[in-house]
Every structure is written in C-alpha cells, then in structure tokens.
Amino acid sequence: MHVVRRPGWALPERLATPENQFFDRRRALGVLGGAAAATALPLSAGRAASDLLAELYPVPRNARYTFERPLTPEDLVTSYNNFYEFGSSKRIARAAQALKIQPWQVVINGRVERELTLDATDLIRQMPLEERVYRLRCVEGWSMVVPWTGFPMADLVKLAAPTSGARYVRMETFEDSSMAPGQRQFWYPWPYVEGLTLEEATNELAFIVTGVYGKPLPRQNGAPLRSAVPWKYGFKSIKSIVRFTFTDTRPVSFWERLQDEEYGFWANVNPEVPHPRWSQATERVVGSDERVPTQLYNGYGAYVAALYDGLQGERLFM
User: Fold this and answer.
1) How many CB atoms lie within 10 A of CB 288?
2) Which of 74, 185, 231, 254 is the most buried (most CB within 10 A)?
3) What domains sit in the chain, N to C, each tagged with a CATH number?
4) Which one has a higher pLDDT value, 289 or 163?
C-alpha cells in the first residue's frame, strides 16, 4: 500500500481559501496599503485608533503554516489564558479588560542604528499582515491550535537595523500595577521579560502577533503586540510588548529569574526532557479530554533544528 505523508506545512484542501475570495481580499488590502504608507501622518480626527486597526482584518492565511488538528474554538482561545499580570488563574479575561492599549508606545533601542519610539498602531499599519495557523504548547502540558494574525519578527528586526554587536533581542512588557493587580505581587520579578537570539528572532517562524481569528488581538491574549515562537514553550511568547532592546548580553527571562532550575533561556519543546515536576511526553488538547504525543520542537524541527547545531552543551529544552 502506498502511504502519502504530507509535510507539516501542507494545507489540507478543505481549509484552502476559495480563489475568488482570496483575490477579492487581496484587492481590498491593496486599497489599505495606501493608508499604511502614510503612517507618518497623524490619525484622522474623530476616528479611534482601534477602528483603524479593525479595518485591517481579516487578512489572507499563509498556506505554508498549517496543522492537521482542528483549530481550537475561538471562545477557548480568548478565555483560557495565562497572563500573570492579571492573576494566576486561567480565567483572567475579565480582569484584563483594564489594560489600556490606546495609546501604546513601543520603544526599539540598544545596539541599533537609530533608536525609535512609535505607537503600536503606526507600527502595525506599516507591516505586511498575514494569518498563520500555529500550534501553541504550554509548559504546563496543554496545547491549542491558533490562527494568529501578525507579521514576521524579521521585519521588525529589519526596521530596528541592529548593529554588528547585537546578538539578542530582549523583549519587555508593560509595568503598571494600577491596572494590572498581579503586578502588586512583589515576589514576581516584574516587568515580564523574554529574549531570543538574533538568529531565532529572524527565523521565518518567529512572529509578532497583532490579531487572532481575523480580529484585532484581545487584551487577555496580549494586545496590542505579542510574540509567537511556536517551537518553544508558550511562556517564551511574551504578551503586551512595550520594548525591544537589541543587546550583546543574553537576557534573563521572567521565569528564569524566578526559578532557573525549572525554566531556562531556550525552552524548546522536547517530549524526552521532563519538567522537574511532570512529564512532557504528551499534552492535553484544550477543549477535549484527548491527550496526544508531544513532538520535538512542537513539530517544527524542519524549520528550526539547525539553529541549535553546536549547542549540545546548552540546556536547550527547559
């Protein structure tokens, strides 16, 4: 019997966007492109920035990044969240509505040709948005399949123009305990910090997320900007980013600073390397009682394994 094995990036025909819809959306986006080119201009008087962002969605799905498992239902993606700034339970969506996302200043600094401060709305409007279906594997042993909207992190790196001394990008979220009660818990090393090597940040999978399910990103999911690095455990995908610092020093991440015996810098998914307190061999599919085997690099090894050649002495997987 001849067995056909589909590559991990192949899109099942049933999920493909019909050709007429695809080109209708392309034409609509072409009209919006003119607005994106004018990001140096102030926002139109009398129109909320969130309204302008809403006009950008939905966008075409990139067929290169797909998964055979069904998408996790939208109501679960937007209600089952880790966001310790607003509490340690998964049910923080209501509390997260206190997050003030307009205006939202983003700083790009460090070892760059020119430091920048710009509003997240202006940044989003000048980037080439696309939708990607990515697996999300939490270090806690559960997983989702999520249709993120955003742009390649490599485009942000290009905008930053890092100098030759830059080896890492350090990402930092907001710090404001007046709207985020979790930040009043002094035992956590606020603000939340994460980092990637420049090679990881420019890998084709690394993604800056601005939306989900064809809509602007909800607050509980990390509005207005978060990252998605799907070959790593979910805590590496930092939410509500306010600063990108290019540096020659490896960043110490939030969870690494808190408990470095359990959470390292790399945090690549590997079913063979258990967490000190539980196995990582399988994962619970959110929205069902199903448990499925976890894959090395969360199934993205073909894209990222070469990044770690020669680093076998490092603690790559936790």
Assistant:
1) 10
2) 231
3) 13-308 (3.90.420.10)
4) 163
